[in-house]
Design goal:
The protein is an alpha/beta fold.
Length: 259
């Protein structure tokens, strides 16, 4: 199917082109959202559609498609329905971070908001964040997940990857995860065939837990609440950086002789 191309001489796959258009219309119809290039999230509308029987879901999608095309026809110049591929979008900000903010208020706000998620929602959030850092993960959460919430690959270099298991622990911010949880996750990751593990929490890790993470294979990368907040900020996942004018900084260019 991928080898079937348009007769334009540009070797563009018909299947990939139609998938691009389908993704674009799903974005316009509020079925998908794409906060960052190459990352897509199913919206509440999309989840509701996925729970419908196939025939009803198809009819609902057709109705959404008709409404999207109608709205585009009313707003586009000349009624054109040409829609470019949509790969980006605005991300609603949970908090605006001032670079001069030293009191950590935004971190507390972020961790409190994450703690309000259900355990399943926190698992989905964790996998989404790690995918933003190049990991390719599939969700394993739910009954019978054997302690593994996600499994897949993580890049080591441009040509090497490693198998990684992920566990997400939505604990009370300020709480502590002990050695036994890390050791149990190591066992689960080994059983899943993972070469590395990533344990993510809104809490913090005890010193014995940190030692256990490196004490035997597979080694576990520990992401506590503070590091989790930093990772969110770096990718602007739920958080944005607010520009701040540092007035005093410009004093270095002043010269008494100019006055």
């Amino acid at each position: 199917m991928l080898t079937v191309c348009y007769p334009t001489g540009k070797e563009k796959s018909v299947l990939l082109d139609r998938l691009d258009w389908a993704r674009s219309y799903c974005k316009l119809g509020d079925i998908l959202e794409s906060p960052k290039r190459g990352l897509f999230l199913v919206t509440d509308t999309g989840r509701e559609l996925s729970e419908l029987p196939d025939d009803r879901a198809v009819e609902a999608l057709k109705e959404i498609d008709r409404e999207v095309r109608h709205q585009r026809g009313r707003t586009a110049p000349g009624g054109s329905e040409t829609i470019p591929e949509i790969v980006g979008g605005d991300q609603p900000a949970l908090a605006a971070v001032d670079e001069e903010d030293d009191d950590g208020a935004w971190r507390r706000q972020l961790l409190e908001r994450l703690h309000q998620l259900s355990p399943a929602a926190f698992e989905r959030f964790t996998l989404y964040l790690l995918r933003a850092y190049g990991m390719e993960l599939r969700r394993q959460g739910g009954p019978g997940d054997e302690g593994i919430d996600g499994i897949g690959t993580a890049p080591l270099t441009d040509v090497l990857t490693t198998t990684v298991a992920v566990q997400a622990k939505r604990y009370e911010p300020g709480g502590t995860i002990g050695r036994e949880i890390v050791a149990l996750f190591q066992s689960d990751a080994t059983a899943a065939g993972a070469e590395h593990g990533v344990l993510v929490t809104t809490a913090r890790f005890s010193e014995p837990a940190r030692k256990a993470a490196l004490g035997r294979t597979p080694t576990i990368d520990l992401i506590d609440g503070d590091r989790l907040a930093d990772l969110c900020l770096r990718q602007e996942v739920g958080v944005v950086t607010r520009p701040v004018v540092r007035h005093e900084w410009f004093n270095r260019f002043e010269d008494e002789r100019d006055r």
